[in-house]
Amino acid sequence: MNTLLNSPQLKSPQMISRLLPLAVVCLLFNALHATPIRAAKPGQPVVARVEMQFAKEDQVVDVIAKGDLLTVVEDRGEDYVIVTHDGTRGAVDKVNAVELAESTGIYSELIEENPDEGRYHTLRASAWWALGEQEKAMADFNEAIEKGYEEAHAYSSRGLFHAARGEHEKAIKDYERALELDPEDITPIINRAAVRMAQRKFDAAIADYTEALEVREGNAGLLRQRALAYKSAGQMEKAIEDYDAIVDDNPEDVAAVMGRGYIRFQQHNYAAAAADFSAALELNEKDPVAWNNRGYNRYQLGKAKDALADYDRAIELAPEYALAHQNRAWLLATTEDESLRDPDAAVEAAKKACELNGYGNVSDLSALAAALAAQGEFKEAVGWQEKVVESAPEDAKTFASKILDRYRAGKPYIADPIAAEKTEQQAAEAAAKKKADKENAAAKKEAAKRLSEQAEKEAKASGLEKAE
To answer: TPR repeat ranges (predicted)?
Structure first.
């Protein structure tokens, strides 16, 4: 699930909010050059170890305070190109910026220097969280709020931490407090929706995403999240409407095209699903998932040859793609097209899928059993299908058991074993009836013949001739 994070508003009274060309950073304090330097990746936050000034043509244009969060734009070796919270762009030496997980000491110093300033507790909380120290992070957030730091982002951020710990009601309480403090910020609404998705309260999540969309009308990210909520709630057409809105606005949004295709597959609208995955491939022909998904829907449409080609392409692009190997195994083992059926290759593909998933995926094991049955190796097929029955979820155990019965009877996999069993029973009953009718007719004929012979004997004994 995608959650929109809410970062603290790191404003300093010394910070000048303006966009500037790349500037040179002048140090106000000496840095500890002996400290090992780790490189942050673009997009990652780093923390200012010291106060710094942005200068242009010998004139100070902006100031970075110690402890300010900076976003890395580019790693240039000795320094980072960074952007401040307010959008100022510049360069800082790596020695003067540390990764978030390494910044607890910086914030501890700031807390000692400013004991009544709750904001630094929220910043150190983020650093503790980055280190995996959840309890210390929560303690800092709580202390910040106890010190009277009544900022919306403090509650919103603590709500994120509660949500990550599975403390859903506490998270919602914090998000709602954040909304009271700053009704104009819809981020807590979006994050509350994510919690409600985790709680499986899909209608409530839909309502939250809808409220957020009233502010950010047409936002693709929110439409995508609401589509997922609609899908989870079983409102498939509503989900498709949201994906349609995204694609209408941006036909190259491949994620929306793929998402819509998956819902159409779930609706058994295989032709429309295959069309969506074809459209996705036009946008990104290197996507193995799109190849696999189109292949599966083509197979449902009876296009086994095209489906096999799609699976092969998916595997060519991603040789470790277990699901593509599994789907390929099913096709080769069960297709009605005898020119494509290849039990030996099916067993090989199924074993590859099993190996990739450590023989822990029940669908892989089911495919292996089906492939072995197609190969005529029913004893092995029974062994693997028994494992399938053991591992299958409750709503699939009946089906798995019916397939196991077929393998024990020396019969291959079939998609509808109950219907097949009924058909086979009806055929057996019809054959038995036909045999019985034939035997009855023969018995009647034999009885009639005997009666005729007996009557003839009796007539001769009485001196009468049989009438012709």
So the answer is: 152-185, 220-253, 254-287, 288-321
The Cα–Cα gap between 179 and 188 comes to 7
Instruction: Please give the distance of CA 239 from its chain centroid, rounded to a whole number.
Output: 16
Average pLDDT across the chain, whole number: 87
Query: Model confidence at 59, in pLDDT bands (50, 70, 90)?
Result: confident
- CA angle, corner 386, sides to 393 and 355, nearest 5? 85
Segments making up each domain of the chain, as ranges? 24-102
> Terminal CA-to-CA distance of the chain, rounded, Å?
94
CA distance 143 to 119: 10
Token look-up 């509808």 returns 416
**Cβ atoms of 52 and 124 closer than 8 Å:** no
Residue type at position 218: G
Give the integer Cα–Cα distance in Å for 163 and 7.
15
Residues 253-287: tens digit of each pLDDT: 999 999 999 999 999 999 999 999 999 999 999 99
Of the listed ranges 11-20, 171-180, 207-216, 340-349, the one predicted with least confidence: 11-20
Tokens in use for 95? Answer: 């020695």
Output the CA torsion sign for 435, 440, 441, 442: positive
Cα angle 44, 47, 52; round to 5: 125
Q: Are 254 and 284 in contact (CB under 8 A)?
A: yes
Higher pLDDT, 62 or 77: 77
Which whole-number Å values give the CA distances from 461 to 195, 249, 347, 455, 456, in the listed order? Answer: 104, 106, 77, 10, 9
Give the pairing of strands 69-75 and 59-64: unpaired
CATH code that applies to domain 24-102: 2.30.30.40
Q: Are 193 and 208 in contact (CB under 8 A)?
A: yes
Q: Would you say 160 and 11 are in contact if contact means Cβ atoms under 8 Å apart?
A: no
Q: How far apart are CA 177 and CA 183, in angstroms?
A: 10
The percent of residues in the chain predicted with pLDDT above 70, rounded, is 87
pLDDT-based confidence at residue 429 (cuts at 50, 70, 90):
low
DSSP letters spanning 91-111: EEEGGGEEEGGG-HHHHHHHH
pLDDT digits (tens, 9 = 90+) for 138-185: 999 999 999 999 999 999 999 999 999 999 999 999 999 999 999 999
Distance, CA of 95 to CA of 85 (rounded, Å): 20
